[in-house]
Amino acid sequence: MTFQISKRFEFSASHLLEGLADDHPCARLHGHNYRVEVVAEADDLDARGFVVDYHELRPLADHLRATLDHRHLNDVIPGQPSAERIAWWLYEWCKGHLPDEVARRLVAVRVSETPRTWAEYRPGP
């Protein structure tokens, strides 16, 4: 049996993606209201009955607000600031900055640029 939880966060930012055809809309400066979803899982619940306490994910909300919200992502994210790269970048941030027990249970980060699109980073085995 596996238990899984997720928590969603939001931020707004601009970016442009290089290497696309000149007529591609994402090659121009544009912005999104991003949604970030962090997914954690565990085979057993902790002593409190949680996979992780949602409150322990608060540092990510603070990081998004301070680092990405109302910023130009090309100035913040190394490389091409695609949804896929943002998901990877945030996953790596979470692994290094969330409490150890939370970071160990983190399995994926999803990033949405629109209500109909998602990119997910989930490390391999």
Short description:
The protein is α+β, with helices and mostly antiparallel strands and 125 residues long. The chain has three helices and five strands, in the order E-E-H-E-H-H-E-E. It has a five-stranded mixed β-sheet.
SSE topology sketch:
Blueprint lengths: L2 E13 L14 E13 L15 H11 L2 E2 L10 H15 L2 H6 E9 L2 E5 L4
Parallel strand pairs: 1-3
Antiparallel strand pairs: 1-2, 2-4, 4-5
CATH superfamily: 6-pyruvoyl tetrahydropterin synthase/QueD
Main sheet specs: 5 strands, mixed
Average pLDDT reading: 96
Q: Give the strand content.
A: 25-35%
Domain count: 1
Helix content bin: 25-40%
Distance between the termini: 19 Å
Q: Kindly provide the radius of gyration, computed on alpha-carbon positions and rounded to a whole number of angstroms.
A: 16 Å
Please provide the count of β strands. Answer: 5
3D shape: elongated
Tell me the name of the CATH class. Alpha Beta
What is the helix tally?
A: 3
CATH architecture, by name, is 2-Layer Sandwich
CATH topology: Tetrahydropterin Synthase, Chain A
Order of helices and strands: EEHEHHEE
Strand order of the largest sheet: 3-1-2-4-5
